[in-house]
TrEMBL record:
Signal peptide: none annotated. Belongs to the BLOC1S1 family. This is Biogenesis of lysosome-related organelles complex 1 subunit 1. It comes from Octopus sinensis (East Asian common octopus). PANTHER family: BIOGENESIS OF LYSOSOME-RELATED ORGANELLES COMPLEX 1 SUBUNIT 1, BLOC-1 COMPLEX SUBUNIT 1. One of its GO terms (biological process) is endosomal transport. One of its GO terms (cellular component) is BLOC-1 complex. Pfam families: GCN5L1. InterPro entries: BLOC1S1.
Length: 111
């Protein structure tokens, strides 16, 4: 009977040792899980900040492109206007050269 009691105590001690180790391991896992959750939340926050920065940068680039496009359109319009004025000036001068000054009424004479 004493040997059976000793064997029982030995088995219980051996099982308790495993349970104690499992408990310690579980506590470590819980701690590591909390750290991982905190790091994941921090990473998610940083990712959102980076996405916002990239989005703002992309918007700024689009605005620059819009301004550049607007400037090109204005430049093209100004070239068209300049060409039209130059053409009109040349036509007027050519017409003035072809018309003798004596045949123009007094109101059309250039003084």
């Amino acid at each position: 009977m004493a040997s059976a009691t000793a064997l029982t105590h030995a088995l219980v001690d051996h099982l308790n040792s495993g349970v104690a180790q499992s408990y310690v391991n579980q506590k470590k896992l819980d701690t590591e899980t909390k750290i991982l959750q905190a790091n994941a939340a921090h990473f998610a926050k940083m990712t959102m900040q980076w996405l916002k920065l990239v989005e703002d940068f992309n918007t700024a680039l689009k605005e620059i492109g819009d301004v550049e496009n607007w400037a090109r359109n204005i430049e093209a319009d100004m070239r068209t206007i300049s060409s039209a004025l130059e053409y009109a000036y040349r036509k007027r001068n050519a017409a003035m050269m072809e018309t003798p000054q004596d045949s123009l009424p007094d109101s059309k004479l250039i003084h």
